[in-house]
């Protein structure tokens, strides 16, 4: 990845961390889920409104580090208007990006602005910060109801 692209991605992450989008409590959500990262202290509640299998609205609240907030902000921005199946498929692509790193330009296709998170895999201690919102999303959409913890379940990497 070029240094210019890396700088641009860093600016996007910083902007979303300082000014998170969709940082509010939705009234009458279809599903909610809570997530917690005990290593960093990140905690969030995700609110999703589904209408006929489409994410009509999505938002989050909570406290967390810059990476956690930026990831949740980017995620909620990207998922509005997507079908539930598309969101779960995107979870898989983003999770691979965050845990394995970009494997060339083709690996970044289909993730949109979420590509800004591609450098996080280089910092293993921050991966759980970035994946917390995504695991919480999967929990909300699958309706398991359990609180997600990055340290206490098999979804936390």
Describe this structure in words.
With 157 residues, this protein is an alpha+beta fold. The protein has one domain (3-149): Sufe protein. Chain: A. The chain contains five helices and four strands. The chain has helices spanning 3-18, 66-79, 84-100, 105-108, 124-142, and strands spanning 31-37, 42-51, 54-63, 148-149. Strands 3-2-1-4 form a four-stranded mixed sheet, covered by helices on one side. Helix 1 (3-18) packs across helix 2, helix 2 packs parallel to helix 5 (124-142) and helix 3 (84-100) packs antiparallel against helix 5 (124-142).
Q: What would a concise description of this structure say?
A:
The chain has 157 residues and is α+β, with helices and mostly antiparallel strands.
List keywords for this structure.
Sufe protein. Chain: A, globular, 157 residues, four-stranded mixed beta sheet, alpha+beta, single chain
Strand percentage lies at 15-25%
Radius of gyration, Cα only, in angstroms?
Answer: 14 Å
Q: Tell me, briefly, the overall form.
A: globular
Helix content: 40-55%
């Amino acid at each position: 990845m070029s240094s210019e692209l890396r700088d641009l991605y860093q600016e996007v992450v910083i902007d979303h961390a300082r000014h998170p989008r969709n940082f509010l409590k939705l009234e009458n959500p279809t599903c909610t889920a809570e997530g917690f990262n005990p290593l960093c202290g990140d905690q969030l509640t995700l609110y999703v409104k589904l209408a006929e299998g489409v994410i009509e609205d999505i938002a989050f609240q909570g406290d967390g580090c810059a990476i956690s907030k930026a990831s949740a902000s980017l995620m909620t921005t990207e998922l509005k208007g997507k079908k539930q199946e598309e969101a779960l498929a995107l979870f898989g692509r983003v999770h691979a990006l965050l845990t394995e790193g970009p494997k060339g330009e083709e690996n970044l296709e289909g993730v949109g602005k979420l590509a800004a998170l591609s450098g996080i895999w280089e910092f293993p201690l921050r991966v759980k910060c970035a994946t917390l919102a995504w695991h919480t999303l999967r929990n909300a959409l699958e309706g398991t109801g359990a609180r997600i913890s990055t340290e206490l379940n098999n979804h936390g990497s």
